[in-house]
C-alpha cells in the first residue's frame, strides 16, 4: 500500500439541514476540502434530493471540491448539467451505465474527475477493463437512497480487493472512496482496508459539534494508515 496516500473526509450534505445548505457548507468550509453531494432520482433509488440548480446555488458559497454522486438512471444526460452547475468530481453507478467507458470519457471530457460507484451487492471484478478510465471508485457501504444506515462490513473486503488490484496494475492515482455509515468507530478499519476518501453524513451533520466530529473522524482515519 502506498505510503503517499492522502486521507480526506467529504461531509455529505444529505445529512445537513436542507433549509440551510449554505450554512452547512460555511460551517465546515475551513475544515474540509470536499463536499459530497448526493443526487437521487426517485427511480434508481427510492428517494429524491436535489438537482443542478441547487448545486449551482451552493457553488457561489465555497471553493471546495464538489463531489457529485449521481444515483440516477441514464446518468449520461446529467453529466453536462451537473458539470455546468459546478461539479468537480462526478460519479455514476456501475449498475446504471451499460456503456461505462463512454460515460467515464464524457465525464473526463467535461473537465471533471470521473468515478464509478458500486452498490454493496455489485462485484468489483466488472471494473477490470475500465480501471484505466476512472479517477476514483466509490464503494457503497450501505444500499444507496438514505443516510443514517448501518455500515456494511462486507465493504471492507471489497475495498481491500480493489486496493490490491490497483496496486497490481500500478494505478496508484486511482482513489478509493467509501460512502455510507462511516463514523469514528470504523474510520481506521476503512483506511486500513484501502480507502482514501471517507464520505460521512450523519456522523458529521447530525452530531452536536460537526467541526469536532470532522477532526475526530480524520484523526481516527489517519490512525489506520
Ligand atoms: C446514501 C448516500 C450517502 C449518504 C451517507 O445513498 O450516497 O452519501 O449521505 O450518509 P451516512 O453517512 O449518514 O450514511
Ligand atoms: Zn453518496
How would you describe the overall organization of this protein?
This protein has 225 residues and is of the alpha/beta class. The protein has a single domain (8-222), classed as TIM Barrel (Alpha-Beta Barrel). The protein has eight helices and eight strands; from the N terminus they run E-H-E-H-E-H-E-H-E-E-H-E-H-E-H-H. It has helices spanning 21-28, 52-59, 76-85, 100-110, 154-169, 187-193, 202-205, 210-223, and strands spanning 8-11, 34-40, 65-71, 89-93, 113-118, 136-140, 175-179, 197-200. It has an eight-stranded parallel sheet with strand order 1-8-7-6-5-4-3-2. Helix 2 packs parallel to helix 3 (76-85), helix 3 (76-85) packs parallel to helix 4 and helix 6 (187-193) crosses helix 8 (210-223).
Task: Quickly list its features.
19% strand; eight-stranded parallel β-sheet; TIM Barrel; 225 residues; binds D-xylitol-5-phosphate; binds zinc ion
Amino acid at each position: 500500500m502506498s505510503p503517499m496516500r492522502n486521507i480526506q473526509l467529504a461531509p455529505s450534505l444529505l445529512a445537513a439541514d436542507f433549509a440551510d445548505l449554505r450554512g452547512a457548507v460555511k460551517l465546515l468550509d475551513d475544515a474540509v476540502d470536499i463536499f459530497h453531494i448526493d443526487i437521487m432520482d426517485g427511480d434508481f433509488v427510492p428517494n429524491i434530493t436535489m438537482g443542478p440548480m441547487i448545486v449551482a446555488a451552493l457553488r457561489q458559497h465555497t471553493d471546495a471540491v464538489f463531489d457529485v454522486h449521481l444515483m440516477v438512471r441514464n446518468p449520461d444526460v446529467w453529466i453536462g448539467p451537473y458539470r455546468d452547475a459546478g461539479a468537480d468530481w462526478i460519479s455514476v453507478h456501475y449498475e446504471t451505465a451499460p456503456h461505462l467507458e463512454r460515460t467515464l470519457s464524457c465525464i473526463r471530457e467535461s473537465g471533471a474527475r470521473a468515478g464509478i460507484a458500486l452498490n454493496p451487492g455489485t462485484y468489483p471484478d466488472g471494473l477490470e477493463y475500465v480501471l484505466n478510465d476512472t479517477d476514483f471508485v466509490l464503494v457503497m457501504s450501505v444500499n444507496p437512497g438514505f443516510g443514517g444506515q448501518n455500515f456494511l462490513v462486507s465493504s471492507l473486503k471489497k475495498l481491500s480487493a480493489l486496493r490490491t488490484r490497483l496496486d497490481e496494475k500500478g494505478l496508484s492515482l486511482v482513489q478509493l472512496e467509501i460512502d455510507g455509515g462511516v463514523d469514528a468507530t470504523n474510520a481506521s478499519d476503512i483506511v486500513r482496508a484501502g480507502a482514501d476518501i471517507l464520505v460521512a453524513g450523519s456522523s458529521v451533520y447530525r452530531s452536536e459539534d460537526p467541526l469536532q466530529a470532522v477532526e475526530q473522524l480524520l484523526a481516527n482515519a489517519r490512525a489506520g494508515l
